[in-house]
């Protein structure tokens, strides 16, 4: 029986680069003949990034048996019982490998070429191997895979099985499994008396899992997913997505166990249905959940996940998706289910990762009892204006009406009357690293007083406008505006017999200059003192301006958006219909929005087109307008 | 009338005070929430997304009910607030000009009526008379983003009126928040 000493023995004689080599000699002599391909797979020190460190426990997670080709379980079921500290199929190895770096049995070869660590595989445990069966073409696929499985020490998932010339090739994503498979070589005799040879070559992760889907394929996939999405339940059914007729007819191969496909699906969910609550991923040959984990932050509301009928080998896969706060989960018909000797253990393992789960494989579970350590997460509801009293409300609204009438006019000079002699005014805009000349708030940038970023006392002083003459002179230089008084929200924070302070927020439009029609949102604090019997006199005025959001623009200056599912009301005349379809085609917007645009511009095609182009350039048109 | 030099110093100091205040306030809000009410006057008012909260007790309860927060302040502006010093001539001008601006007599009468209600009625709000009656007052305006636990991130705008108060525990006066107005930029959605 080989001992750890053998490793040292090997070191002395091993002149290969890459550090000490540990090998599993399996009780055979040091010079047993091997084929070249075996040597390539020899375990090496793992020095890669990520989880690839020389951590024996890391290796064991991979080694817990690969997934079987079909549902029938391995012979010798008792040995499949889940046990993290032993490797289930160790014919001939009866020594714990815990203290061996890189593990025994072919664990730890690095993918990629001779250049040290990294190679094409890069990240730690994800190493790919291409298995080749020369002359494999003559065998029936089912027979070949069955016979390989029967003889292989571990179950495996062949990826991208294909024939090339006379040979059969497929990929294995795991060194241990690949080695185990390769050992089957020449042990099987086919019906004609020839021995079946299995060759193994490490390789970089194959292109087909890396290449991103083409944009047009993504579009088809999005449509396909849209069909499979139930809005009323916020549920997405991706069961057997690979066989979806829409995708098959377009020759799009969505194999969800491939990183690129899973990523594409996640991106579509993130961009279109981030409030997703239920997701069905059954029947997709998923054997690992690493890529699915990316969805955790993108779909925070996910409560139900169906992973049944996949190829998940161990419950450890669930650790990767612990971030989902699941209430319902389906795991049946995965190999991992066979690992549990009884139901309570199964439930317990699932609850360990998902403590809030109430339904497992369709069965209700008794609700868990928790501890009340949860801190509050609900915020008080947001309300509209706060005026303190009706008198104040009238006073302020009256004031604002007069103020903005003047402010929105061609000359703001009359505002002098509204300001106290010693009034102060300053302006601020959101902090941005963008070059001011390219920012649409460029007009305001040079006068923006942000003392968090601005440290020079002279500048700080200069940017504060003092005395009403300076204040109003400055206000007159700001872009001409049109305020949407209906959008105003007012919060009265101080009210005494000597002081009234209130904050107004809302939106306005610029009516000339280079940012004509740009919609801005503002927050403005007025501090005022009573002005005799007639109203308010402003002593302090601070204005904060930012760009309005699409939502704000929609609510303020445009009619509310129509829901994009119904077709437009057919009360248009024939020429209008024609203009509409032409406009829709040229602009790319759906009929709903095209019609709105045309209507807003009195069915003047050119004007509508101009407005559309302008708004589009400013990024003001919401994406929903383009969904057909 | 304050001279320009004094005013300049006043402005410089205001900037320094507001910078310090903002650091203290948001640090307290994020990490020492229970102590936050100490920064407020006894009868201060908070208007939080349209919800009005007044007085130490109510404020304490309110802050307790908010989830833990992570504030990031991106913009800060401040202004010294003028007190009651209003010169007579200015007052006369204001009255006359505002009258001129009114559209019709009824409007003027309405304004007169309501403003007289306000003007004659002392202490409408329990906020103390100390506000700007010779007291140093500071307007602090902030903007940035906040993430409350369990909620998505929001951009916010906030402003404070700080007033200098004599402190029982030290010789120097301390700043206290007399009013606080806070709103999410997207409160309506």
Automatic annotation (TrEMBL), chain A:
GO terms for biological process: poly(A)+ mRNA export from nucleus. PROSITE patterns: LRR (PS51450), NTF2_DOMAIN (PS50177), TAP_C (PS51281). Gene3D superfamilies: 3.10.450.50, 3.30.70.330, DNA helicase RuvA subunit, C-terminal domain (1.10.8.10), Ribonuclease Inhibitor (3.80.10.10). Pfam families: LRR_NXF1-5 (PF24048), NXF_NTF2 (PF22602), Tap-RNA_bind (PF09162), TAP_C (PF03943). Residues 103-123 have a biased composition (Gly residues). InterPro entries: Leu-rich_rpt (IPR001611), LRR_dom_sf (IPR032675), NTF2-like_dom_sf (IPR032710), NTF2_dom (IPR002075), Nuclear_transport_factor_2_euk (IPR018222), Nucleotide-bd_a/b_plait_sf (IPR012677), NXF1/2/3/5-like_LRR (IPR057125), NXF_fam (IPR030217). One of its GO terms (molecular function) is RNA binding. Keywords: Leucine-rich repeat, mRNA transport, Nucleus, Repeat, Transport. Its main location: nucleus. SUPFAM superfamilies: L domain-like, NTF2-like, RNA-binding domain, RBD, UBA-like. Residues 1-17, 83-102 have a biased composition (Basic and acidic residues). Residues 1-123 are annotated as: Disordered. Residues 574-628 form the TAP-C domain. GO terms for cellular component: cytoplasm; nuclear speck. Transmembrane segments: none annotated. It is found in: Nucleus speckle; Nucleus, Nucleoplasm. This is Nuclear RNA export factor 1.
TrEMBL record, chain B:
This is Nuclear transport factor 2-like export factor 2. It comes from Paramormyrops kingsleyae. Residues 17-184 form the NTF2 domain. It is found in: Nucleus. PROSITE patterns: NTF2_DOMAIN (PS50177). GO terms for cellular component: nucleus. GO terms for biological process: nucleocytoplasmic transport; protein transport. Its main location: nucleus. CDD domains: NTF2. InterPro entries: NTF2, NTF2-like_dom_sf, NTF2_dom, Nuclear_transport_factor_2_euk. The chain crosses the membrane at residues 93-114. Keywords: Membrane, Nucleus, Protein transport, Transmembrane, Transmembrane helix, Transport.
